[in-house]
Write a structure and sequence with these properties.
The complex is a heterodimer of chains A (564) and B (342). Chain A has 564 residues and is an all-alpha fold. In chain A, 73% of the residues lie in helices and 0% in strands. Classes of the chains: A mainly alpha (564), B alpha+beta (342).
Chain lengths: 564, 342
C-alpha cells in the first residue's frame, strides 16, 4: 500500500501530480465539459426540440443500419480469414495476414476514394478495360449498402485480430485430448474450438460496431453526396451551418454516439471477462488441421478476397491518380503524373497539409512518448491505488469516436483560455492537444507492456548502485524500453498522419491536415488530385507498417496491432 | 562498517491484513554472514527488501551502526545506503557489457577514467571473469552471470551485501561451485552478508549464523551447528535435517537430549497423559533385534545406503537408513540411539 511518505516507492514526488495533471487535461476536462454541456442543454429543454426533429431519427436509423450491416460484413470477412489462417494449413499465412490487416490502417476516406475509383461510370480503371457502365448510371456505392460494405472491409481486421487472439489462446492439449478421445477433426472444430472461440467473435463484432458508429471518412465521402447522414457526418454538417444552437445540438449528438459506443465496448468487455479460463494448459499453438485437397481452393478464395478488397481498389486509386481528369479514360496516351506535380509542387494547400500533418504527427508522437514513459512507469511501478482509475481514464478518449473528442475540445477551447486570455480555437494548437488526447492510449500501450515485461530488479539494482530517478531513467529504463518506445512513436505517427475525424472539425484556413486536404479535394471535384494524395498516403502507410513488421521480433507481444 | 540491527521490525502490506513480517528483532555482527532460512512466503524476502530500502517497515526500525536507516516514519532511500545486492534473476542490464555492468555503481558515484577501469578489472579478476569484460550478459552462462552480479557488488566496497536466493536458478553442480565463490567472497571482502534461502543445506554450508523464519516470525537465530543439534520447536525441527517428529508421552525431567533408555520408557508409558514432540534423525535409528517393532513402508536406494520409511505400531512415521536392502512391507525391530525433545 502506498502510504504518504513511503520512500520505498521508487518514484519521485512530482510524478503523481504530473500524471494526474496530464490525465485531467487530456481526458477528464474535455469529456467532463462535453457531458456538462450535454446535460445543461438537455435541462434547458433543448433536447425535446432536437428529439422531435425527424432528421435526427433518420440519422440514428442510418447510423445503426450501416453499422449493423457493416459489422455483419466485418464478421463474415474477418471471421473466415481468422479461422482459415489460424486453424488450417494454409500457405503464405504471414503475407495473407499482413495484407488483410492493411485496410484498417488505410485512412477511411482513402478507402472510400479507392472504391469509388473502382466502381461507377467514371472509373478510370473500368474505362481502361472497357467495363465501365454507361454514363448517367449512379455509382452503387453512394448508398446505405455501399457504406456498410466499406465499413465491413475497413473493420474486418478488428474481428480478425480478436478472434485470432482467442484461437491462439486455445489450450492445445485440450484439442489433443479430444483427438485421443476419438473425435474427428470436424468434431474437434465443432465441439471444442468453435464454442471456445465464440467470445472472440462477439468481442470482435462489438469493436467493429463501435468503430462503424464513429467512422467519419466513409460516410462523409459516400453518404453526404447522397444525402445520407450518419451521426458523425450530421455533427459535421451542423458545424458547417453554424448557428446559435449548434453547441447544444452537437453535444447532444455526441452524447448519443458516446452512449452507442459505450454499449458496444461494455459488451466487448463483458464477453472477454470470462476468457481467462482458457489459458489453463499449454496454449499458444493451435493444432493445425489439414485441409487436403480443399487447401488449394481455400487459398484461391483467400487471395481472391485480398485481390477484391485490397488490390483492385488500390489499383483503381492509382489509375484515377494517373488520369488527366475525372472521367477521362486511362490509356498509355493519356497517362500523366500531372496530379502528383500539382499536389507536391504547385498547390500550396496540399503542401501546407503535408507540413501540418507531419509536424503535428511528429510532435504528437514524441511529445506523447515523454508523457507515456512517465505515466507507464507510474502505472506499472507506482503501486498506487489510483493506477487502475488512471489507466481507464487514459483509455477512454481513444475508445470514443474522434468526432466526439473533437466536439469536446471545441467546447473546452471555444472561449479564450483563462488568465492568459488567448484563444487557441482555430489554431494548430487545438488540433495538437486533441491529438495528444486521442492517441494517448495508442502511445501508452506499447510502453506499458514493455514496463510490465521489465524485471523490477533491474531498476532495483540501479537504485542500490546509487542511481537516482533521472539517472535510472536515462541509463537503465529508457534504453530497455527503447524498442517499444520506437513502436509507439511509429504507431502514433502513422495514425495521426492519416487521421481525418478530429481535424475535420478543428481545422481552419492554414491548419488543414492531410486527411482534410484529401476530403476537400474530393469535395471540390478534384478527384484525380485527391487520388494522387491518397496514393502517397497509402505508400507511407505500407512503408511504416513494414518497418514495424521488421521491428516486431524485438517488441513485447501485442505491441504491433496486426500481430498476435 | 558496523553491525546491523533489526529492532522489532514489522511489515503489513494490506491495511488490516496479516503481517508479512511480525516483530523481528535480530543483530548481525560486523562481517557476519547471516542466512535467513524459511519456506517460501515466510517473509524472509520482505525482511531483505526492507534492509535494502525497497520496502518501508510498518513498525520497528533498522539501524546500521549509529545510523537509523528506516523506521515507520522516515527512511533512507536505497540509493544512499551503500549496500549491494545479488538478485535471484541476477538483474544484469542487458544493454550494457559486463564491464559496464560492473562499473555502473562507480559511474553513478562520479568515479571515472583509469581509477574506474582498475577497480572494474580487479572486481572481474576476483570472480575470474577478466576475459569476459566486453561480452554482453546474454552471451554468458547462468553461473557466469551470477559472478558478474557478485563483481558488481564487490566493486564499491558496500557496508552490507544482500543475496536473494542467488542459487535458485542454477543446477546442482553449479550451486556447489558458487557456494565456494560466495564463501571466498565473504572471507576476502569482510562485508556483512545477508543471504536469503529456502534451502537448509545451503544455509548450513555458507552462513556463520542462521535465522529461521516462518509465517513472518523469527523462530530461532543460532550458528548452523547449534540449529542442527538443538532446534527450538516443531517448525525449526522439521525444517533442519531430515528428521521425523514423534509425539510421545513426556519423558520425566527437563532433559532434552534423550537416549534409548528414556525413549523406551516413553514408548512403554500409558497412552494418556501429556505428550511431547521428539525429533528423531534417521542416522540415529538402528535396526536391532532388541528394539521396538516397526513396518517398512518404502525403501529407496540412495547409492551409499538405503533410505527407509517406517511406521511404528501406533501409526507414527519414522525415517531410517540401512546398509542392507530391506523389503517393503517387512517387519523390523528398531532402536533409537538419541533424540531431541523440541
Amino acid at each position: 500500500m502506498a502510504r504518504s511518505g513511503n520512500r520505498g516507492n521508487s518514484q519521485p514526488r512530482w510524478l503523481f501530480p504530473f500524471v494526474v495533471t496530464v490525465i485531467f487535461l487530456l481526458s477528464v476536462l474535455p469529456l467532463g465539459r462535453l457531458a456538462a454541456t450535454g446535460i445543461a442543454s438537455a435541462l434547458q429543454g433543448h433536447a425535446r426540440q432536437m428529439l422531435s426533429d425527424p432528421s435526427l431519427w433518420q440519422s440514428v436509423y442510418d447510423t445503426l443500419t450501416t453499422s449493423f450491416f457493416g459489422m455483419i460484413a466485418a464478421v463474415v470477412l474477418g471471421g473466415s480469414f481468422a479461422l482459415l489462417l489460424t486453424l488450417f494449413d494454409i500457405r503464405g499465412k504471414t503475407a495473407l495476414g499482413f495484407l488483410f490487416m492493411l485496410p484498417t490502417m488505410i485512412p477511411p476516406q482513402v478507402t472510400a476514394l479507392s472504391w469509388i475509383g473502382m466502381t461507377g461510370p467514371s472509373s478510370a480503371l473500368l474505362k481502361a478495360v472497357g467495363l465501365a457502365p454507361p454514363m448517367g448510371t449512379p455509382n452503387p456505392l453512394y448508398s446505405i449498402s455501399g457504406i456498410a460494405l466499406l465499413y465491413g472491409v475497413q473493420n474486418a481486421p478488428l474481428v480478425f485480430l480478436s478472434l485470432r487472439a482467442g484461437l491462439l489462446a486455445l489450450p492445445r492439449d485440450g484439442v489433443e485430448a479430444a483427438r485421443l478421445a476419438g473425435a474427428s477433426s470436424w468434431q474437434v472444430l465443432k465441439d471444442i474450438i468453435l464454442p471456445l472461440s465464440l467470445p472472440g467473435f462477439a468481442a470482435g463484432a462489438a469493436i467493429a460496431f463501435v468503430s462503424c458508429v464513429g467512422n467519419f471518412g466513409i460516410p462523409a465521402i459516400l453518404g453526404i453526396p447522397a444525402s445520407i447522414y450518419t451521426l458523425p457526418t450530421l455533427i459535421y454538417a451542423k458545424f458547417a451551418t453554424f448557428g446559435p444552437g449548434t453547441f447544444a445540438d452537437v453535444s447532444l449528438l455526441s452524447a448519443i454516439i458516446g452512449i452507442l459506443s459505450m454499449i458496444g465496448l461494455t459488451i466487448e468487455e463483458r464477453v472477454l471477462r470470462g476468457r481467462d479460463y482458457r489459458v489453463i494448459g499449454l496454449s499458444g499453438q493451435v493444432a493445425v488441421f489439414r485441409l487436403g485437397i480443399w487447401r488449394i481452393l481455400a487459398e484461391l478464395l483467400l487471395w481472391l478476397t485480398i485481390f477484391t478488397i485490397l488490390v483492385m481498389p488500390l489499383t483503381a486509386l492509382v489509375a484515377s491518380s494517373l488520369a488527366p481528369a475525372y472521367g477521362v479514360p486511362l490509356s498509355p496516351a493519356t497517362v500523366t503524373i500531372k496530379a502528383y506535380e500539382e499536389i507536391l509542387f504547385r498547390q500550396s494547400i496540399t503542401r501546407t497539409a503535408f507540413t501540418n500533418s507531419i509536424t503535428l504527427s511528429l510532435a504528437t508522437a514524441f511529445g506523447l512518448l515523454v508523457v507515456t514513459v512517465l505515466t507507464g512507469y507510474f502505472l506499472v511501478r507506482g503501486k498506487s491505488r489510483f493506477a487502475p482509475l488512471i489507466a481507464a481514464l487514459a483509455e477512454i478518449p481513444y475508445a470514443l469516436p474522434g468526432i466526439v473528442l473533437a466536439v469536446a475540445f471545441i467546447l473546452v477551447f471555444a472561449a479564450p483560455l483563462p488568465i492568459v486570455g488567448i484563444s487557441i480555437y482555430g489554431t494548430i494548437w487545438i488540433i495538437l492537444i486533441a491529438y495528444f488526447s486521442s492517441f494517448l492510449a495508442v502511445s501508452l500501450k506499447p510502453v506499458v507492456s514493455a514496463f510490465r515485461q521489465l524485471d523490477p530488479s533491474l531498476e532495483e539494482a540501479a537504485r542500490l548502485s546509487g542511481a537516482k530517478f533521472g539517472r535510472r531513467m536515462a541509463d537503465i529504463i529508457v534504453p530497455l524500453v527503447a524498442p517499444a518506445a520506437g513502436a509507439s512513436v511509429i504507431l502514433v505517427f502513422l495514425i495521426a498522419c492519416n487521421e481525418l475525424t478530429v481535424s475535420a472539425l478543428l481545422w481552419s484556413a492554414g491548419t488543414q491536415t492531410l486527411g482534410v486536404a484529401i476530403y476537400n479535394l474530393d469535395d471540390s471535384g478534384s478527384f484525380n488530385l485527391a487520388s494522387a494524395l491518397s496514393v502517397l498516403v497509402v505508400i507511407m502507410v505500407i512503408v511504416m507498417m513494414l518497418v514495424l513488421e521488421l521491428l516486431a521480433n524485438r517488441l513485447p507481444k501485442g505491441v504491433v496491432p496486426w500481430r498476435s | 562498517m558496523a553491525k546491523l540491527i533489526l529492532n522489532r521490525l514489522s511489515k503489513t502490506f494490506d491495511l488490516g491484513g496479516r503481517p508479512a513480517v511480525h516483530d523481528v528483532s535480530l543483530t548481525v555482527r560486523d562481517g557476519g554472514f547471516l542466512a535467513l532460512l524459511g519456506p517460501s512466503g515466510c517473509g524472509k524476502t520482505t525482511v531483505l527488501r526492507m534492509i535494502a530500502g525497497f520496502e518501508q517497515p510498518s513498525d520497528g526500525s533498522i539501524v546500521l551502526g549509529e545510523r537509523v536507516l528506516a523506521d515507520a516514519g522516515e527512511m533512507v532511500p536505497p540509493e544512499h545506503r551503500n549496500m549491494a545486492m545479488v538478485f535471484q534473476s541476477y538483474a544484469l542490464w542487458p544493454h550494457m557489457t559486463v564491464a559496464e555492468n560492473v562499473g555502473y555503481p562507480l559511474k553513478v558515484r562520479g568515479i571515472s577514467g583509469e581509477k574506474r577501469q582498475t577497480k572494474v578489472r580487479e572486481a572481474l579478476a576476483s570472480v575470474r571473469l577478466e576475459n569476459y569484460a566486453d561480452r554482453r550478459p546474454a552471451d554468458l552462462s547462468g553461473g557466469q552471470r551470477q559472478r558478474v552480479a557478485l563483481a558488481r557488488c564487490l566493486v564499491t566496497e558496500p557496508d552490507v551485501v544482500l543475496l536473494d536466493e542467488p542459487l535458485a536458478n542454477l543446477d546442482r553442480h553449479l550451486r556447489q561451485e558458487m557456494e565456494e565463490t560466495f564463501r571466498e567472497f565473504h572471507a576476502r571482502s569482510g562485508a556483512t552478508m545477508i543471504y536469503v534461502t529456502h534451502d537448509q543445506a545451503e544455509a548450513m554450508a555458507l552462513a556463520t549464523d542462521v535465522a529461521v523464519m516462518s509465517e513472518g516470525r523469527l523462530l530461532q537465530v543460532a550458528t548452523p551447528e547449534e540449529i542442527y543439534a538443538r532446534p527450538e520447536g516443531r517448525l525449526v525441527g522439521g525444517l533442519v535435517g531430515q528428521g521425523a517428529i514423534l509425539s510421545l508421552p513426556s519423558p520425566t525431567g527437563d532433559k532434552r537430549s534423550l537416549d534409548w533408555q528414556a525413549l523406551r520408557a516413553g514408548f512403554d508409558a500409558p497412552v494418556e497423559g501429556q505428550k511431547a514432540d521428539i525429533l528423531v534423525r534417521p542416522q540415529d535409528v538402528e535396526i536391532s533385534p532388541d528394539g521396538i517393532k516397526a513396518t517398512v513402508r518404502s525403501v529407496l536406494f540412495e547409492g551409499e545406503r538405503y533410505a527407509l520409511r517406517l511406521t511404528l505400531a501406533d501409526g507414527q512415521a519414522l525415517r531410517a537408513f540401512s546398509r542392507q536392502p530391506v523389503d517393503a512391507g517387512a517387519e523390523v525391530a528398531i532402536v533409537i540411539r538419541s533424540a531431541w525433545r523440541l
